[in-house]
């Protein structure tokens, strides 16, 4: 009797552990992508990098289209895909600009506020009730971001402002994505957002265009592949797990980013980055625990 393959063993895992695996892998892909973006941004404008990231990211879906045909692109909710594409594109343009201006670990630590923005977005757009405990968690997480930015003690870095704004925009995109996964496949959701983002970011890239050389083109392809894989893995996680459960696992991005920054840029995060990140991680972990406890209570 043949032993099970790695894919078969993976499918035997519980949905919870499969979601964890997808989120850890996605976090690694995006952390390495952001590190590569910072590296390439020394020679190309972030808007152009964003366009090529989406162009090459879209190409990884070609085999899927060849195998399934154009019918796999059918969607019942084109408007929702457009909305998600707009928010994701705005987030990416802000984020890539931020990565060209601040150390990788600091930008990544600020991005960990994402689950807090998801909580606020769920309250504003989905009508979810937010109790005192979750409001306290949001305030603590916001305090963590302020520890990293240190306004009034350090000159305000516009790149940090862009990082926080980009994180807020992508939180809205994640709420739309979770809604879409109820009626669409993960691949369909991922493909449509890639297509929309490619078109939107091209409109910005034309104003700063310069032709990349072959080495830059190779790194841009790496960025696109890592980004496309990361978003597909995130979408797979959202299909089998609640956003509130999956989001805290994104914290592993800080570890990957700190390692990349140390090895490639010799950047060592300062103590304020780690303190702020700890406050943000603690706040969002508390929020996730409250969310799971509330759903378990409702189920009983």
Instruction: Report on the biggest sheet.
Output: none
What distance separates the N and C termini?
A: 43 Å
Tally of extended strands? 0
**Overall body shape:** globular
Helices and strands, with pairings:
Blueprint: H1 6-12, H2 15-40, H3 46-59, H4 62-68, H5 78-99, H6 104-111, H7 114-125, H8 132-149, H9 158-180, H10 186-205, H11 214-240, H12 243-246, H13 252-265, H14 271-299
Helix pairs in contact: 2-11, 2-13, 3-5, 3-10, 3-11, 5-9, 5-10, 6-9, 6-13, 6-14, 7-8, 7-9, 8-14, 10-11
Question: What's the quick description here?
Answer:
The chain has 300 residues and is mainly α.
What does this protein look like?
It is built from 14 helices and no strands. The protein has 300 residues and is an all-alpha fold. The model has no long low-confidence stretch (mean pLDDT 78). The protein has one domain. Helix 2 runs parallel beside helix 13.
């Amino acid at each position: 009797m043949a032993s099970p393959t790695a894919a078969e063993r993976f499918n035997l895992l519980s949905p919870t552990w499969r979601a964890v695996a997808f989120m850890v892998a996605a976090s690694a892909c995006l952390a390495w992508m952001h590190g590569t973006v910072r590296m390439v941004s020394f020679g190309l404008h972030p808007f152009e990098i964003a366009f090529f990231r989406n162009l090459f990211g879209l190409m990884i879906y070609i085999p899927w289209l060849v195998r399934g045909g154009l019918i796999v692109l059918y969607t019942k909710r084109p408007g929702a895909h457009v909305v998600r594409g707009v928010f994701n594109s705005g987030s990416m343009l802000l984020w890539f600009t931020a990565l060209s201006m601040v150390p990788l670990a600091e930008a990544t630590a600020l991005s960990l506020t994402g689950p807090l923005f998801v909580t606020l977005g769920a309250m504003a757009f989905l009508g979810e009730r937010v109790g005192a405990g979750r409001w306290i968690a949001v305030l603590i997480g916001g305090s963590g971001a302020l520890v990293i930015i240190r306004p009034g003690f350090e000159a305000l870095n516009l790149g940090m402002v862009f990082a926080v704004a980009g994180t807020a925009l992508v939180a809205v995109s994640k709420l739309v994505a979770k809604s879409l996964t109820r009626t669409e496949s993960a691949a369909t959701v991922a493909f449509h957002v890639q297509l929309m983002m490619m078109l939107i970011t091209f409109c910005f890239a034309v104003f700063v265009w310069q032709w990349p050389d072959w080495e830059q083109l190779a790194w841009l392809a790496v960025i696109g592949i890592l980004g496309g894989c990361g978003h597909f893995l995130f979408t797979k996680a959202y299909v089998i797990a609640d956003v509130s459960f999956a989001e805290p696992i994104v914290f592993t991005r800080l570890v990957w980013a700190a390692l990349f920054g140390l090895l490639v840029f010799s950047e060592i995060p300062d103590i304020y980055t780690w303190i702020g990140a700890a406050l943000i991680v603690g706040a969002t972990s508390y929020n996730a625990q409250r969310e799971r406890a509330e759903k378990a209570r409702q189920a009983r």
